[in-house]
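Human: If only I could read C-alpha cells as easily as an amino acid sequence. Underneath my words sits a plain record pairing an amino acid chain with its C-alpha cells. Take your time, and here it is.
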Amino acid sequence: MALTHGGNGAGNLDKHRGGVKREEREMWNEKWWVAYQGVPGAYSELAARTACPGCFTLPCRTLTGAVLAVESGEADRAVLPVESTMDGTALRNYDILLRHDVRVAREITLFVRYCLLALPGVRKAGLRRVMSHPVALAHCGRALARLGVDREPVEDTAGAVRLLSTRRMFDAAAIASARAGEIYGLDVIDEGVQDEAWNTTRFLIVSRDGEVGAGARAPKKTSMVVAHAGDDAMAMLRRVLSAFASRGVNLTKLEWLKGRRLRVFARVMVVDFEGSVEEEENVREAVKEVEESAAFVRVLGCYASDRTVYNLE
C-alpha cells in the first residue's frame, strides 16, 4: 500500500489521491511506514522494501518531505540515497540530515539496473525523446547518444514512467526500474542501459530514535560530520586521521562536504568508521579527541554495517 505525502511539511496527507488519514494509519501500526522520494516503482521504494520487508511505503515529492514525515510521526523511517559508484557522494542529502532531528538506523546498497521502458508496441526506431531523473539520464549517456533522442529530465525515474503511461506518449521512453514498468503497464525494450555495468547506490535508513532493528548483531558502523573554523584543511585531516588510527579504528569514508547548513565553517567533512560510540570505548575516545579540536561534531548515527549488495538477481 502506498500514500502520497507533500514536500512542504508533515501532516499533509492527501486522501483524495490515495492517502490515508492518521487514525486509519494507526490501524496498521504493527508494521513500519517508510517514506521515500518519488512514486511507486522508484529505486528508493525498492530500497525501503528491501530494508524493511512487509513495510507500508509513503511516497513524497522531495527528500526533505520524506524526512519531515519521520519528524512528524507520519512515517517511522525514511530512505535517502547518499552515494553511487557512478556519481560519488550525494553531499546535499547529508545537508538534509543535518537540518533535521533524525538518526541513521541502517544502510543498504542496491544494484541499479536501468531499463528503457515504453508503451506496448513502441520500438526504439520510433523514439524521439527519453525522460527520467537527471542522474539516470547522465548514467545512460552513451545508450541515449546511440539512440539519437532528446533528453527530458523529470523529478523521478518512476514518475517518468507514470507520465508516459497517463499521457499515452508513443514517441517517448523512460529510464527506470523494470518494476516501474510492471506497475504502470510499460514494456521493457532494453535493459542494463547504464554506461557502467557495475552500478550501485547506497541508501541510509533514518528514524527518530536511530534504533538498529534488523541486523542488530552485525558489526557496527558510525557516521558523523566534523566542521573546522580554520582554513588549514590538511591540519584538520591529520587530526581526524590520527585520532582514529592511534586507537585502531578503521575509516570507511572521509569526504569534504559543502552545504547550506554548515556554510559558516571553512571546512566540513563526512566521516564513516567501523565501530560504535555507544558500545566501544576506543571509538568514544577517538570521537572525543576530534571534538576537542573541531568547531562542530555531530554523530549522525550508529548502525549495523551491511556490505551486501541487494537486487543482483
Confidence is low (pLDDT under 50) at residues 1-29. Residues 142 and 195 are 6 Å apart (CA to CA).
